[in-house]
Amino acid sequence: MRCNDVLKSAVLTCFVFAACSQVRSQRLPKIISIDVSGAAATQAIFINPAGVITGLYTDWNGASHGFVRTVDGTITSFDAPGAGTGPGEGTEPWSINPTGDITGWYTDATGLTHGFLRTAHGSLTTFDAPGAAKPAGIPCTPPVICSNGTQGGAINAAGVITGQYLDAGGVFHGFVRSPDGTITTFDVPGAGTGFGQGTYVVFGDGISMSGAVVGGYQLPDGSFHDFVRSPDGAITTFDPFGSAFPQTAGINSRGVTMGLYVGATGSYHGFVHSPDGELTSFDVNGAGAAAGQGTEGLNINAAGDITGTYIDGNGAGHGFLRLKHGSISTFDAPGAGTSSGQGTTPTCNNPGNAIVGFYVDGNGVYHGFLRQ
Question: Superkingdom, according to UniProt (predicted)?
Fold first, then answer.
């Protein structure tokens, strides 16, 4: 081979290598941090099909505020009318639908929570479920999100909102709010009526396109169970693999539900529940096997892909994406801590598998993230 042929071959090889490297770099997911300017902590919560993100941030007084992040990175903060400004008070968004409408709740200066609807244009409407109240003391039994009053939890494309509320006796109940503002309350038959018991609804993607609602309920004996409420109000209950501590975390447009359950050792395992009743368990490689460790499915998109977190043997969290057919990839947000209570927690994946969530760094500070 002549010298110039060798040179041409070398140049061609370098070109091909560079081109392949460029293609690989373009295909690798990119993770960016989301921090609201001046915030003490930021958490991205939900992303819609268009890539618009909602979440919350905490100021240095300990009050929460909502934010919306557009696809170009512009962040707009907002507060519900009447939201308190003290520690533990403020505005908490939990779900955004395809048109950009957001639901969640806010806590006023008395400590009472109220639901809200923020349209894509920025107008805010507040609401309360009939019978919602602030009991003496706040029930805080996992996996229930501690609060009182009314909590807007999830909103679908039609603008139907679901959530839960606490009555004066400290019992939880579910509700569905139609676009005209009509609120229908419901309880799973047999749900406990003791303090902190009752019916709980999933936040984020707790309602399907058709209006099916998912959640959990607690029996008088203290055990937890899962349910699916169809659009006509019929309720079906189930227990993933006989677990006494299951937690459904979402439903997609095809009626597939998923979440996590606690196994015999106290560790978490992910599950998928098809509309025909088929149950599939899954675990992420590297998940810890001790109590409080393991795999947690947290969100499912229309295709059936699931995102969530797994807790390793050190107690640190890591993100994962499980595709419909079962293949699992893992990831960590840059800067995420590796000690117990730190790490990466994905909270939502949209139809294109853009994933949002939050991570806790080595100093214990919360930051939002977007994995594109």
Answer: Bacteria
